[in-house]
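tool_call: predict_structure(chain=1)
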Amino acid sequence: MEKKIRGGALIARALKDKGINKVFTLSGGFCNPAIEGFMECQIDVVNCPHEQIAGHLADGHTRITRKPSVCLVGPEGFANAVPSMMEAWGERTPIIYITGSSSLKRQGSGGFKEIDDVSIAAPLTKYSASITDGTRIREFVDKAYRIATNGYPGAVHLSLPVDIMFSSFEENVGLEERPFSHKAKPVAKAWPDPNALSKILELACNSKKPVIIGGHGVWWSNSEKNLETAGESLNIPVFNVPYHQKLLGEEANAYMGLADIHQYPPSEFALHNSDLVLMIGARLDNQMNFGNPPFIPKTTTLVCINGSHEEIEFNRAADHNLLCDPGVFLDTLCNLKKNNKWNLGNSWFQDNKNRKKDWVDKSLNELKIEADKAKENGGKIHPLQLALDVQDAMDEKDWLVIDGGNTHFWSEIAINLAGAQGKKLGGILHPGTFSMLGVGVSFALSAKNNNPKSNVILISGDGAFLSGGMSIETAFFEKKPIVVVIDNNGGLASIGQQQERLFESGKRVATDFRDIPFHSIFEGFGGHGELVTKREELGPALKRAIASGKTACVNVKAKPVLSPIVAAVASKREKSSIE
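tool_result:
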């Protein structure tokens, strides 16, 4: 008689077949059979203090490795995990969310902890379904995995009712029909229509001032090296969409900065003077002003190259669309030069490099004046200076994570400034499209998990740390030391500063914090903590924090300074528009 196993163990085996090696969870009774199955399959299970943290850890791990991971939650825990779904949705992260849900037998009658998780997850995932027949568990896992990883990647959700979770099934159930093997298959790539490709290549060859904007699709198709080669060999300035995994190191010669005129003003020169924008693996969303002027002028030809039909649908406003894997397109573009069909000189590329240098020099000179005044008057450190000084303490293997509102934006600018001077880092992580506060500690821990010999430093706003900082317990428990630098300006500065400009009274409401001793919190957990009140104290404090070998906090009293992008947003909102 064939051996029987629980439904939870069956789903664990199905995921093991796909190569899943990481599960993040807050252990709950509804999920115990699955957890036992993961143990038997020798899949690493990370226990988290909160389900939202489990989701963010899965997100960070998957962004770095580009391999799906699992977030496993119970029915009430599912509600806690929803914010992490939104963050993953914005970044197109292929996480597999699994809910050990209420009993199928009593569904719809107010069962224990019953929640309609399938409907709630549907708008935040590519696929959300309940497994109503235990004999089809492998089928559902196979479908969910393929949907998550193919085309426009993204999170998926499977709900496994508790009665199926605990019920027993033949261990080989589902293998009696095709597919007989449930091993993960290579991701399908889109190859272009030759006629459509020829038209785009002709536009590129005739362009005098082309620009490339790289987005999510480049990262998830493992094509960032192709992107760098295209920019470097063809003399095309390369930009990154905001709020996304960095495609190229900031020190890369072809990389100019964010396609964001507020955080990287030279991009305005590039976009307004270009005759062709090749947007690869990105979406014409609010960050790109939906492709409209004044961000991209009417006189500029806008071409969107995307690897899936889903993305093409988002980019209907483009002058030309091409369905093509980003790596395939970039390689084909590079072949133009090999075949002596590329005649673009270096002047346009150099114009952009010069604009970048002028901006870097101006920004650093202004910051020096600010720093000298602060030292003379005993003033607090500027958040831009804080972010630059943190990078000074890092080497090329170290990972930088940023989290917050103003903190995020100033740190983005600092990364570009430091990169322009040759600063190289091992990697960078930050919140995605939704700018969700509180992801920093989880992302920093994900970076440390995957780069155990590297230092990982998180620059977090005080508000961002209050949103998700208690996840720091996981770093202590897992013995994965990270350093958290708190940009402590005493409140939600970006919101308060908008209020001061928007409200007739000129006052801020519900945005201030009390003086919180973040460094003492870390000491209480058994870590290292220091308070910094002057810039000259920061460097030595960082060195001591890193040398401690403990999870550490450097709590920096910083100046609340309005970032350029927040100033722009505040101006727009005064006009009753946020886009």
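agent: Confidence is low (pLDDT under 50) at residues 573-579. Proceeding to next step.
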